[in-house]
Amino acid sequence: MKKLATYTVATMMAAAPAMADLVFPSLSYRTGPYAAGGIPFADGYADYFTLLNERDGGIGGVMTRVVECETGYNTEKGVECYESTKGEGALVYQPLSTGITYQLIPKTTADNIPMHTLGYGRTSAKNGGVFSHTFNFPANYWDGASGAINYLLEINNGDINGKKIALVYHNSAYGKEPIRTLEGLAEKHGFELLLLPVDHPGQEQKSQWLQIRRERPDNVIMYGWGVMNQVAIQEAANIRFPMENFIGIWWSGGEHDVMPAGAAADGYKALTFHNVGKDFPVFDDLQKYVVDAGKAAGAGDQVGNVLYNRGMYAAMLAAEATKEAQKIHGVADITPAMMRDGLEALEMTAERMESIGLPNFGPTFKASCENHGGDGLVGVVEWDADSKSWSLISDFKPTDADIIAPLIEEDSASYASEAGIEPRC
Amino acid sequence: MFYREAGDFKTTYVEDSQTFPIRFDRYRYYFVLLVGFAVLPFIVNDYWVNAILVPFLIYSIAAIGLNILTGYCGQVSLGTGGFMAVGAYACYKLMTAFPDISIVIHILLAGGVTAAVGTLFGLPSLRIKGFYLAVATLAAQFFLVWLFNRVPWFYNYSASGQINAPERTVFGVPVTGASVEPWAMYMICLVFVFVCGVLARNLTRGSIGREWMAIRDMDIAAEIIGVNPLRAKLTAFAVSSFFVGISGALFFSVYLGAVEVGEAFGIQKSFIVLFMIIIGGLGSIFGSFAGAAFLVVLPVVLKLIGVDLLGWPTDIVAHFQLVIVGGLIIMFLILEPHGLAQLWRVAKEKLRLWPFPH
């Protein structure tokens, strides 16, 4: 077996051509209980780079190459994928898993490769002074928690004192992230917080929803992922919990999450940090250069889905950061270290998004050494079961920095002292 | 021809009772040690260490542990993942509480803590057997994972519930944390594997190992000939958990560096270690290594062949992998219920007669 592995590794290394191209590894998961979200994201990520290759001939004249590696949302496989792809000159990692992110933060920093965790991962990575190689713009989990509460304040005329709000969360690093923020907000706004953990993979939620039925919270916030979302929405429908009082984080707001519950899911809300639908010029190009040319990743049936858009958005930010890096360093074939500088200098303006065919697709932000997390603008979308579409019902609005900033300061400081890091700025 | 007892004269009892009585075997063993200790550390790279060698070594310790309990003492356990979690969390608590003490001592102590917990969960084995014991250990698995998720003290009240291994050194060389050299990571695991392997081999050959096997083969008969079932079963649980705890501690501190209990030490971990000893061979130390190597290397090889050589989509390869591993387990259960270790044994028998089989 070992021998065979040696031969395969040897042949693989011999076979892999030493082309100068921009390598974007995609640590995807198309299998397992989280595949429903992993597939559209991976498709969107791959398709955008295919579009750049087909339409523009790569980025700055250098072709891009997406190396896909299946992690199954599993940290061990994630490490294996990281080690197997980093040798190919991987420019930026996007593991799409908070668990793998925690694993890779020290590794990527030591290897001088940047990592972009778009709306997931370790929230305090926003503090770029400590987390030099980790970026989590444009929004993070704590922005999500605050955004949900802000939305509730908005529809309740600024007063949610005495309300009872339940948090149904995936019992992992991901789901636990917002608890502190919500506790701080509960103190500030005087609402009562009810914590309901759901264990991996999340198919068993009867007891949690029974508790919700008993406790009758005014609102339910969900931090779920994968199969957990569908089950939760179905369970909410089963106990006749009013769907309009149910808000999911952006990872609980895909088409595949609400479709199984059918008409009962009507009115379900989710947070978002980017726009929904395919009403953007870039989709015409995608259709023309990628889908119609038969070059779409996967089954090619995900175009325009929420998570497809997110994958594409992630790819778009990576591509823009690459352009930025090429501009800073004056070379087309950049290294991971240059990519890091590009990410840190990235500025998304309205004109820039317009020029790449995604006008008003995401919030505008500017990354810097201090701020790797953007401005944390969060919007709310609502599901319409009749037309089977999401619509933005609350525009991208700022979140409560008074609560979040000290928490980020505290958490990143504790990481810095644990890992012995001197803040860079 | 080369592989035979003839001509290898033993003149002392010590020589007579050595682990590898055949000279060829012995040299092969020294050769493996030489390659492991003196050659591999100089040639390994990040990928080999992180994707193959370190997981193989760590799973070997876990498989040895489970093999002692299930293969030698006949007590079926589905709690391996939970016990690995005990080792990991004990190691984490010790590492953060006593940062000045060597990580090696912490890992050994983590094994000790796990041994105590394992003994506790082994108590029901005095009353119940077989499937029922499997269910009791399954309860341990779920209880322990729930406990580490539920009680913030275990993860030092961190916001995410994750535990992160801070940097610790052995002889001034970092072995945990971000800046670990691949060879250091490999060496610390190898040393633990070597010590555990020698320990397990000698325990199972000695009187205590015979007691375990007597209990496994027929507990009533064992009791009649004077084996104390309480002692035999509880020592098996303690020793087994000690090994599993060490593997859990290494898994967390050296290999992954950051762990989330439900994800890293869930029920699937218990199953994969069980598959390792079933495929490798129940009641065999070599089988533990073979099974661990098989289940660690197989997915990597399948991935290399499927994705990198044939260029198939990653999801198809991942699905194929499940099919192939499942198929192999069934195939082994039907064709060679004693696992890879039995194939090895048969090969050795054949080799002994070769080239004149009659």
TrEMBL record, chain A:
<dbReference type="InterPro" id="IPR028082">
    <property type="entry name" value="Peripla_BP_I"/>
</dbReference>
<protein>
    <submittedName>
        <fullName>ABC transporter permease</fullName>
    </submittedName>
</protein>
<comment type="similarity">
    <text>Belongs to the leucine-binding protein family.</text>
</comment>
<dbReference type="Pfam" id="PF13458">
    <property type="entry name" value="Peripla_BP_6"/>
</dbReference>
<keyword id="KW-0732">Signal</keyword>
<feature type="signal peptide">
    <location>
        <begin position="1"/>
        <end position="20"/>
    </location>
</feature>
<dbReference type="InterPro" id="IPR028081">
    <property type="entry name" value="Leu-bd"/>
</dbReference>
<feature type="domain" description="Leucine-binding protein">
    <location>
        <begin position="27"/>
        <end position="386"/>
    </location>
</feature>
From TrEMBL, chain B:
<feature type="transmembrane region" description="Helical">
    <location>
        <begin position="130"/>
        <end position="148"/>
    </location>
</feature>
<dbReference type="GO" id="GO:0015658">
    <property type="term" value="F:branched-chain amino acid transmembrane transporter activity"/>
</dbReference>
<feature type="transmembrane region" description="Helical">
    <location>
        <begin position="183"/>
        <end position="200"/>
    </location>
</feature>
<dbReference type="InterPro" id="IPR001851">
    <property type="entry name" value="ABC_transp_permease"/>
</dbReference>
<feature type="transmembrane region" description="Helical">
    <location>
        <begin position="76"/>
        <end position="95"/>
    </location>
</feature>
<feature type="transmembrane region" description="Helical">
    <location>
        <begin position="236"/>
        <end position="259"/>
    </location>
</feature>
<dbReference type="GO" id="GO:0005886">
    <property type="term" value="C:plasma membrane"/>
</dbReference>
<keyword id="KW-1003">Cell membrane</keyword>
<dbReference type="InterPro" id="IPR043428">
    <property type="entry name" value="LivM-like"/>
</dbReference>
<keyword id="KW-0472">Membrane</keyword>
<protein>
    <submittedName>
        <fullName>Branched-chain amino acid ABC transporter permease</fullName>
    </submittedName>
</protein>
<feature type="transmembrane region" description="Helical">
    <location>
        <begin position="316"/>
        <end position="335"/>
    </location>
</feature>
<feature type="transmembrane region" description="Helical">
    <location>
        <begin position="27"/>
        <end position="44"/>
    </location>
</feature>
<feature type="transmembrane region" description="Helical">
    <location>
        <begin position="271"/>
        <end position="296"/>
    </location>
</feature>
<feature type="transmembrane region" description="Helical">
    <location>
        <begin position="50"/>
        <end position="69"/>
    </location>
</feature>
<feature type="transmembrane region" description="Helical">
    <location>
        <begin position="101"/>
        <end position="123"/>
    </location>
</feature>
<keyword id="KW-1133">Transmembrane helix</keyword>
<dbReference type="Pfam" id="PF02653">
    <property type="entry name" value="BPD_transp_2"/>
</dbReference>
<keyword id="KW-0812">Transmembrane</keyword>
